[in-house]
Structures are given as C-alpha cells and as structure tokens.
Description:
By secondary structure, this protein is α/β, with parallel strands linked by helices. The chain folds into two domains: 8-174, Rossmann fold (3-Layer(aba) Sandwich); 192-304, 2-Layer Sandwich (GMP Synthetase, Chain A, domain 3). Helix content is 37%, strand content 22%. Strand 7 and strand 8 form a beta hairpin. The termini are far apart. GO terms for molecular function: GTP binding; GTPase activity; ribosomal small subunit binding; small ribosomal subunit rRNA binding.
Amino acid sequence: MTDTPSTSAGFIALIGEPNAGKSTLLNQMVGAKVSIVTHKVQTTRARIRGVAIEGDAQLVFVDTPGLFRPRRRLDRAMVKAAWGGAADADVVVLLIEAHRGLTEGAKAIIEGLAEHTEGRKVALAINKIDRVQAERLLALTREMNEAYPFAETFMISAEKGHGVQQLREWLAGEMPKGPWMYPEDQIADLPLRMIAAEMTREKLTLRLHQELPYQLTVETENWENRPDGSARLDQIIYVMRDGHKGIILGKKGETIKAISTAARAEMEEFLGHRVHLFLQIKVRPNWLEESTRYSEMGLNFKDGEA
C-alpha cells in the first residue's frame, strides 16, 4: 500500500485577448519577471512557463499568446500555441478586462472553450477591477457566468496584486496530487537564452512605440560565461527592411544604445551578475516565413499554415 503524496503539481493556462494582463498576472504569481510586459498587444509569442509555490502545491503557469483573429503565419502559430496551452493544462484561467467587458473577442474565446478545454475546470479572472464601479463588476460577473459555467470567478488587479493571492490559493487546491515537476528555486523553464532575448525585445517594443514592434524578433546567438563570473551575450535583432535598421539605431546610435543599456540592466538584475551585451541588427525580409525563427520563439512553424 503506497502513501498518498502530500505534494501536488499541475499546469495552469492563462488565456484571454491580447493585452488582458496575462503576462502581468504571471509575473505577480511567480514573484519575478519571466514574461514580457508592455502596453502593446500580442507581445507574448512563446508559451512561457512560470513556476510558483503555494503551500505544498507547485503551480506551473503557461502564459499563452493572446487569442485574436489571425492574419499572418506568425499570428496563426501564436493562436494555435495558445489553444494548445489550454488543452494541455490541468486548469484554465480566462482573463478579461473589467472596463472592456464581454467583447466580441471574449465571446469568441468562450465559444472555443468547450472545444479546447473539455473536462477541465475553467476559472474566470476579471482583471483591472480598479477601473470600474462595483455595480458594473457585479453585472459583468452575472453576464460572464451566464455565457459559460465557470468553476469560480475572481476579481483581481494583476498590476497591483489585488485578489491574486485568493486566486493562487484556489489554484493550489485544484492541482493533482503528485511530486513537484521543477526544483523549488526554479521560476521558469524557458532557456536563459530565450529569456534574455525576450528582455531585449521588450525594450525594443517599449522604445519604438508604433513604428515596428511586430516586424522584428531577437535571438541570443552566443552566451559565454566568463571566468570573472560575468557573461557575454551576443544578440541579433532581425528586421524586415533596411529602413528599420535606421529606426533602431536612432540618431548617432542613441536609440540602440538606450535599448542595450536597459536590457543589460534587467538581465543583470535577473541573473545576479554582470552582463556584457552586444547587439547586432540584421535585415531578413522573410524572417516571418523561416522555420528557425519560430523554433527560437518556442512556436511550431507548421501551426502557422493557413
């Protein structure tokens, strides 16, 4: 007769429309920045796993790309990855923004829930609750639960942390019994190369605003740990047109210098040691059609086929 394990562990998929706050919630849950957070939509490309501990439970969060109507190969691969993350999870959390309510996009996601989450509990997290009055929140809760039989509904502010602990405790109680899947001190299962590339891409996205956030990608080409405890990272920024190089470089190289400085500072804080960061820009007009670029982002190239 075997003893029932005292520990539990499972996967939780965070799904929702672009910019609903999934990455912010993931970072709150984990207590560290493992997912790219910007004011841009569609910034999460890979399914990022963040790991959190709550009591005897290990919660492995999958921050999926936002679900939206895809137009390009990259869009289609991202949406396929998002639904794949939901289908593979033990519990699914749908995030919606309180001030936007039950949008057409949210309705489309709810229609897809039955197909992709059969047999799994789905919780509703109404995010950014500080932006609306209590009466509207109650009305939205009723409307959402009439649209889908959610297991639980949580009112949260992912940015400020309100309600996040209650959600985490409920999730811990829903995890299947079994041993932990990751060491206690591990907060993400993304390779460090990809985390570093995401950090640089975030700084590019924040700095460049509307100019070309979705037409570039970053890869960590080389990572060298040095004897003095520091690391040298060589990264390539792939862009689609020659004109994009000038935008990233900026006047007298000021833009790329600022991006490099900000990315390096975040890498040093995350890694706990000095980083020497070298950025190079390469024009690849068809990088959106190259399977290697998708592999680097943790996406399946074939999932992007129409």
